[in-house]
Task: inverse folding
C-alpha cells in the first residue's frame, strides 16, 4: 500500500483501519483511489487537479452546499439509505473543511457508495432512468439557497471554447498546425462557429436562463443500483449555473455514442436514436415542469452542441501540446477529436428526427 496516500487519508475522520488503497475509475482530470478499510465503509480518495480547479475553497463550498441541500430534500421526502443517494465528504481532522492541503496538493475523501455500478455505455432502459435522475437533480437544486460560484469560469460557454481554439491555433505551441488534417478540422469547426454559439446568443437576448446544472453528465458519473435505478450523481466539481443544454447534451454525447469517446475506429462512432429517445423521455418526465419552451425546443441542438464543444476542447488541447486532459498515448487527443467530430456529424443528421420525437412527447 502507498504510504503517502495512507498518510493523506489519515487527515480525515474515517472509521476503521485502512487495509488497501488502489486506483479507481477513469476520469480525465482528477486522480482517484479506492480506500479499503476493515470498518463498515470504504472511501474514495481524490487528488483535486489544482491547475484546472484553481479555487478549491470555492469548489468545495459548492459541493458542500449541493450535497447538504440534496440530503435535506431526500430526508424531507422520507427516503431511506440516504448515504448511497448523495455524496458524503469527510471533514479534515484539524480544520473541519472537506479537503486537506499541504499547499502543494489538494485532497478530499468521500464515503464509497456500496453495491453500486457504473457504466461506460447503457441500454435504452437505463438511459431512461438516467434522464429522470438528471432532471430530478436539476429540479432539486432549483431552490438552492446558497449562491454557487463557477469553478471553471464560463466552463460550457461555446464562444469562449471557440476563442480558446483560435488562441491555440495562433500560438501553435506544439507545432501541430503543420499537419494538414489538423488545419482541415480547424476550418470545418470554424465554419459552424456562429451556428453553434446559439446558446450564448439566446442568453444575451434574455430568453435562455441559467440554472444549476451538473455540467459533467458523462454516463460514468452516475451510480446505478443493482436493479438499474439511479442511486446517485457523482463528480460534482462542475456543478454550477449553466444552460440545461449541458446536462442533456453531455449525457447523450457519452451514452448515445455507439463507439467510445476516443474510438480509433470511426465506423463504430455514431448516435443511437433509441438511447436519445429514452433519455429524453425520462428527462422530460422530471424536468418538463420547469423547462421553458426555448429550452425544450433547443434540446436537439444541445445534443449536437456537446460533441461539437468536446471536439473543440480536445483539438485545442492537442494543438496546445496536451496540457489539460490526461492522455494515454501521444496522438490520443487527436484520436478523441476525430471521434467527437464524427459523433457531431452523426448527431446533426439526427436533428429532424429528434425534433419530431420531442414534439410527440
Ligand atoms: C472531463 O473529469 P471527467 O473525466 O469526468 C472534463 C469534462 C469533459 C470530459 C471528457 C473539469 O471529465 O468537461 O467533458 O472530461 N471535466 C473537466 O471526457 O474539464
Ligand atoms: Mg468523472
Result:
Amino acid at each position: 500500500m502507498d504510504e503517502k496516500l495512507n498518510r493523506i487519508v489519515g487527515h480525515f475522520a474515517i472509521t476503521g483501519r485502512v487495509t488497501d488503497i488502489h486506483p479507481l475509475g477513469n476520469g480525465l482530470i482528477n486522480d482517484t483511489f479506492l480506500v479499503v478499510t476493515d470498518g463498515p465503509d470504504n472511501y474514495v480518495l481524490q487528488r483535486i487537479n489544482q491547475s484546472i480547479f484553481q479555487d478549491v475553497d470555492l469548489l468545495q463550498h459548492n459541493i458542500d452546499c449541493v450535497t447538504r441541500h440534496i440530503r435535506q430534500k431526500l430526508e424531507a421526502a422520507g427516503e431511506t439509505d440516504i448515504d448511497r443517494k448523495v455524496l458524503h465528504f469527510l471533514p479534515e481532522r484539524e480544520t473541519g473543511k472537506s479537503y486537506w492541503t499541504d499547499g502543494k496538493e489538494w485532497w478530499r475523501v468521500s464515503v464509497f457508495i456500496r453495491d453500486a455500478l457504473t457504466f461506460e455505455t447503457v441500454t435504452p432502459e437505463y438511459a431512461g432512468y438516467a434522464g429522470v435522475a438528471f432532471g430530478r437533480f436539476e429540479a432539486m437544486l432549483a431552490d438552492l439557497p446558497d449562491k454557487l460560484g463557477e469553478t471553471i469560469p464560463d466552463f460550457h460557454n461555446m464562444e469562449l471554447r471557440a476563442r480558446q481554439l483560435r488562441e491555440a491555433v495562433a500560438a501553435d505551441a506544439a507545432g501541430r498546425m503543420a499537419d494538414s488534417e489538423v488545419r482541415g478540422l480547424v476550418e470545418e469547426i470554424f465554419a459552424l462557429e456562429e451556428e453553434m454559439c446559439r446558446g450564448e446568443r439566446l442568453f444575451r437576448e434574455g430568453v435562455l436562463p441559467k440554472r444549476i446544472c451538473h455540467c459533467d453528465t458523462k454516463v460514468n458519473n452516475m451510480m446505478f443500483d443493482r436493479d438499474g435505478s439511479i442511486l446517485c450523481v457523482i463528480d460534482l466539481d462542475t456543478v454550477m449555473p449553466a444552460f440545461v443544454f449541458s446536462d442533456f447534451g453531455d449525457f447523450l454525447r457519452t451514452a448515445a455514442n455507439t463507439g467510445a469517446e476516443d474510438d480509433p475506429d470511426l465506423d463504430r462512432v455514431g448516435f443511437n436514436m433509441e438511447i436519445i429517445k429514452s433519455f429524453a423521455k425520462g428527462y422530460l418526465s422530471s424536468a418538463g415542469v420547469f423547462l421553458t419552451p426555448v429550452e425544450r425546443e433547443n434540446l436537439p441542438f444541445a445534443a449536437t452542441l456537446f460533441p461539437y464543444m468536446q471536439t473543440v476542447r480536445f483539438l485545442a488541447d492537442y494543438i496546445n501540446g496536451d496540457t489539460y486532459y490526461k492522455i494515454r498515448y501521444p496522438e490520443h487527443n487527436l484520436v478523441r477529436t476525430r471521434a467527437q467530430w464524427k459523433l457531431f456529424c452523426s448527431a446533426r443528421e439526427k436533428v429532424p428526427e429528434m425534433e419530431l420525437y420531442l414534439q410527440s412527447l
